[in-house]
Design goal:
Chain lengths: ~325, ~475
């Protein structure tokens, strides 16, 4: 497989995941904030900021807007073309990457990506801001689900497909780490008590983990348990552990290395992170500090991304 | 032919269309357009800064070629492709045709696309013109098909032949039940056969790649389409490198040797060491590998000398010289401004002629005498006088018309058309998918079929066993 094609597949999956995660966060938080019980002016102001923080673009946001409110956060995260991480930009990047390798993906997958692109381009920001993000975010969520369904069903599960899996797992692990990190940080800073419950519920819902939580813990929402679920759950498809395991498996499938060895730095780092997530308990992590733990994890994710690129995508200039 | 009365071979499709309600036809049209949009069969216009994608207008009324017309055309095309290839072998080899003074040596050597680097290069199987697109028009006064130009560098458009057919069969399934239309979708397989046959390395599985300039090229869709249909890797210049005169592609497992390159990049951009130094599209050192015989290119480098518009005038002579046959398809009468008597005639009749710059293609550098302003004619007169070798002139040929749907009027009307069949040559025989790309000038009265100027395309049917 050409390095360039592997590179594009990896990034198609990452951008698609970024678009979906952003849509989920936006949709759930927006609606939680509209629930009358929790609408208290100070908490509202507090709540919109973190959404921008999760996207990692505070500086760019500040360059465009005075203050974070429902409308401009929605516009910024969903539609702004000068925000490279906006949902619109991500979908454009998915399609642009797919276009350069359309001979290598199935026709059905290309058509699916293309139709998602046309759907997204067809939304009019003014109208959507008027009706709220649900309709738009739903379209993204469905689009992402459909993408993975079509990819699973129409692509050969060869190394190219493993690059897709690796890209999605890496992006999701990093995104979940950032969500938990930002939310925790936010809650420690604010003295808000009444809205805690709703905020954590929103976090769970944004990563489709609310029902799982209820079944698993049968308890009222406890922030530590939420963290445990999102970081350490071995089977929940959005937990960090699950995704690091998936990443490790995809990287191994690509290199063909055995379970007790690693073929490159990316695999070593993924393996090491997975060990920690398997054997650390949530109380151990809290004892050492959640924030440093999550920061380190995000750094590891970025490092793995770089090493994947160095191992498989880049060639030193040969003369 | 009286207006309003379809020719014999169009009757069946017309009675079929006539049974449809007006709204029904529009519905089918939208279905077809949607299908093109969904498949991303578009070209990009960057005028608004955002890169708007447009569809190539597709006219749902097929162009139908009776078998007898097609058979004759096919014979003429075969002959022409073989003669063009023989000319290229000769002009970069023994140059017999120049020694025998059939073509002036100065005309060949002054051609912008003549590549001295190719003299004496042994191309695999002696094939230069693996893929040719020969543009034909039907003179509506005589009913004869004549050759307007030859394209033996990197002709494009064949993907539309196949996609148009695919869309037609989905949109009008019934029409294909009542007509016996010859298929066209075997083109990629035939092309792949030709590419396999020129591999310089022994063995059953040559590594073939299609080299594209990238997504911003207007024919990018076609590049992806052909690569996918042939099951070969689509590469950009940056995916390849040359080491010790061998071409490799960069894969996730290291370097893989490449044997055959179907290149859709022009000669000038192919190798920054041999040609344009500022080109980032090609592969440095590629010409070295090619000359060393370690990689095959299709089409060969230097083919532009054969489709030069002044050389074009000699193609009927090539057919006589190399094949000892009379040409089946005639040329359009052509005056070469490099000949003093022709030049004098051209300058006197500029307002009645079409003047073309010889090295250009795609409708650039052209003067349409009858519709041009005095100033434009004056400008061309000066340009021609300054560089006569660079210009040729032809009479204005009234293109034939074909019934087409006029979306504004909501009715059928005759529109001017041309035809580009695609010819594959493997050294022994010429293979042509029946028909080719019919382009249509959708604006009333227009003779310009280019997509950038309101042109569209049609599905082209050759009917089996009907005359």
């Amino acid at each position: 497989m050409l390095s360039r094609i592997a590179d594009s597949l990896f990034w198609i999956a990452r951008y698609m995941e970024r678009a979906e995660d952003t849509a989920r966060i936006l949709d759930v938080n927006y609606h939680m904030l509209l629930e009358p019980l929790t609408v208290q002016p100070q908490s509202v102001r507090l709540r919109w900021g973190p959404l921008v923080a999760i996207s990692g673009d505070q500086a760019r946001f500040a360059g465009h807007y005075e203050e974070a409110d429902a409308n401009n956060v929605f516009e910024f995260l969903a539609f702004r073309e000068d925000n490279p991480n906006s949902i619109l930009s991500c979908v454009q990047m998915v399609r642009e990457n797919a276009r350069t390798i359309r001979d290598r993906i199935s026709r059905e997958l290309w058509e699916d990506i293309n139709s998602l692109y046309h759907t997204v381009m067809g939304f009019k920001p003014e109208e959507e801001i008027e009706v709220g993000p649900h309709r738009f975010c739903n379209a993204i969520r469905f689009g992402s689900h459909r993408f993975h369904g079509v990819a699973d069903d129409t692509l050969p599960h060869d190394e190219g497909w493993h690059f897709l899996q690796a890209g999605r797992a890496l992006e999701r692990a990093e995104m979940t780490a950032r969500i938990v990190d930002v939310e925790y940080h936010q809650l420690l800073e604010s003295a808000a008590v009444a809205s805690d419950y709703h905020q954590w519920m929103a976090v769970l819902k944004s990563v489709a983990a609310y029902e799982v939580y209820r079944r698993q813990y049968h308890a009222r929402i406890d922030p530590e348990k939420v963290a445990e679920l999102l970081i350490l759950h071995p089977q929940h498809p959005r937990s960090i552990r699950y995704n690091i395991a998936g990443l490790q498996a995809a990287l191994r499938a690509i290199s063909g290395s055995h379970a007790d060895s690693y073929a490159n730095e990316a695999e070593r780092l993924a393996g090491k992170a997975h060990e920690t997530l398997m054997y650390d308990r949530i109380q151990d992590i809290f004892a050492r500090g959640l924030h440093p733990f999550l920061t380190q994890l995000q750094r590891t994710c970025r490092s793995i991304g770089e090493h994947v690129a160095r191992t498989y995508f880049y060639y030193a200039v040969v003369t | 032919m009286a207006d309003g009365e379809p020719r014999l071979h169009y009757r069946k499709i017309f009675s079929e269309l006539a049974t449809m309600a007006a709204g029904q036809f529009d519905e089918r049209r939208q279905l077809a357009d949607f299908s093109f949009l969904l498949h991303g069969i578009t070209f990009t216009v960057y005028s608004d800064g955002r890169g708007t994608e447009r569809l190539f207008p597709f006219d749902l009324v097929p162009r139908i070629l009776p078998r007898s017309e097609w058979d004759r055309m096919e014979r003429g095309l075969e002959q022409r492709v073989i003669a063009l290839n023989s000319f290229l072998q000769d002009v970069y080899g023994p140059q017999r045709i120049l020694k025998d003074r059939v073509v002036p040596r100065s005309l060949v050597y002054s051609c912008r696309h003549f590549r001295r680097e190719m003299i004496g290069v042994a191309v695999p199987n002696g094939i230069f013109a693996h893929i040719s697109g020969i543009d034909l028009i039907r003179d509506s006064t005589t009913g004869e098909y004549v050759v307007l130009e030859d394209n033996v560098r990197t002709p494009s458009g064949v993907s539309y032949v196949i996609e148009n057919r695919a869309v037609m069969t989905r949109t009008f399934p019934r029409a294909f039940q009542i007509h016996d239309v010859l298929p066209v979708d075997h083109y990629p397989a035939e092309l792949c056969q030709v590419l396999r046959s020129i591999s310089p390395r022994a063995g059953d599985s040559p590594v073939i790649v299609l080299l594209t300039p990238g997504i911003y090229n207007s024919a990018y869709f076609e590049h992806t389409f052909l690569a996918q249909q042939m099951g070969v890797e689509l590469v950009e210049g940056r995916d390849l490198l040359v080491d010790s005169d061998v071409v490799y592609m960069k894969t996730i497992r290291g370097l893989t040797r490449v044997d055959v390159i179907y290149r859709r990049i022009d000669d000038e951009f192919l190798d920054s060491l041999a040609f344009r130094h500022d080109s980032l599209l090609g592969v440095s050192g590629l010409m070295g590998a090619y000359r060393a015989g370690n990689v095959a290119l299709a089409n060969a480098v230097g083919n532009g000398v054969a489709d030069d518009k002044a050389i074009y005038a000699y193609v009927p002579e090539f057919i006589r010289y190399y094949l000892g046959e009379d040409p089946v398809l005639q040329n359009v009468e052509t005056w070469l401004c490099s000949k003093p008597d022709h030049l004098a005639f051209v300058l006197e009749h500029l307002d009645r002629l079409v003047v073309k710059a010889v090295g250009e293609s795609g409708g650039y550098g052209m003067l349409m005498g009858p519709s041009a302003s005095r100033t434009t004619i004056g400008e061309f007169r000066a340009r021609i006088k300054a560089d006569p070798r660079n210009y040729i002139a032809q009479p204005v040929i009234p293109l034939s018309r074909c019934p087409s749907y006029d979306a504004h009027a909501g009715s059928m009307a005759g529109r001017h058309i041309d035809l580009r069949p695609y010819c594959l040559f493997n050294g022994d025989k010429v293979t042509i998918v029946p028909g080719g790309l019919t382009r249509v000038a959708l604006k009333p009265g227009s003779m310009v079929v280019n997509s950038s100027q309101g042109g569209g395309s049609k599905d082209t049917w050759v009917l089996r066993g009907e005359s």
